[in-house]
Amino acid sequence: MPATTVRPASVDEVAAALRDTRGPVLPHGTGTKLDWGAPAARVDVELDLTGLDTVVEHNPGDLVVRAQAGARLADLQAHLETHRQRLALDPPLGGTLGGITATNAAGPLRHRFGSPRDLLIGVTAVRADGVVARAGGKVVKNVAGYDLMKLFCGSWGTLGVVVETAWRLHPLPAAVRAVLVAGADPVAVVRGLVRSRLAPSAVELSGSPGQWTVTVLFEGGERAVTEQAASAGGDRVLDHRPEGLGAWPDAPVVLKVAHAPSGLRALLGALPPGARVTHAPAVGVGLVGLPAEGPADGPADGPADRRADGTAATVGALRAALAPHDGSVVVLRTPAWVKRAVDVWGDVGDALPLMRRVKRQFDPDGVFAAGRFVGGI
Questions:
Q1: What are the pLDDT digits (tens) for 172-212?
Q2: pTM for the full model?
Q3: Order of all β-strands in the sheet with 25-28
Q4: CA distances from 245 to 16, 179, 205, 346 (A)
Q5: How remote is the C-alpha of 147 from its chain's centroid?
Q6: Which residue among 3, 169, 198, 329 is least packed, with the fewest CB closer than 10 Å?
């Protein structure tokens, strides 16, 4: 539990709060991702950024928006919708722009539009000494500070406090069609889609072993999406985005898996019975939900360490299956006793020394989100 909770209402107040403390700080927004990954080793100051929730600037003609880190994605999308525009991000659980940036969280639209790292064009952050730093800008072609923005995307709040972001926008599609393909070999379906001339906004594999559905989402002009949906075949065609597309798996243990697209069959072959999957197979990124006890765990009311060992065995099997395909498995959400027994991040190899040097450069005293990231960073 933090010793102090601070809810600043401006960037200046964030800077002042950091200048006034030298203890470990945990920045967060609405908290939808606060239990992802490893828990913070210690927290003296909880920095609640939900007071920074303003859309600072929206230029519809340039398809660019600037908003503070505590702004909720849902609220920003509602604002943009009045201008027939959107930020092409649909991460599960939503959350604030700062949290989405910190975890580089994306959903099915990643297939066409990429992740936050691809759509972010500017970032403002506050360093541990209270200095405000800016990178990028508010025009799409500005590449100044490009590497800094890349670093903050997916840094899990360990390098500084993101207080403002600028994003590239896209027009809202005039029409939507969703094609559902069920009961087939999902690997063959995905391979056929990738090799075709179709241009979907999302391709999602969902379900459990033996009960798979591939959803293909087309967006654009009425004629184009109608023709593409007809060419895709499938069992059902909807004229709207399916309600459950990109849904968070309903399971007590949730993993993020990433791999080269060639690793899809290896992933499916390593899944235990009862696993729930929401996966972008053409990109190779998705979520896997597991029961609280893995296949080797025994009864749910058995010893906690025995059940945790089973979950660890399942995670290890998935990592081994995906390793030949440049794969990784990160434990996002799980009971606390499982996190104590499972390596949440896994082995990142030669990258860890470089990541530690970056951490020391940006946060030499280890103030931000201590212990949350890879290797205890």
A1: 999 999 999 997 799 999 999 999 999 999 999 999 999 99
A2: 0.91
A3: 4-6, 45-48, 25-28
A4: 42, 12, 9, 28
A5: 19
A6: 3
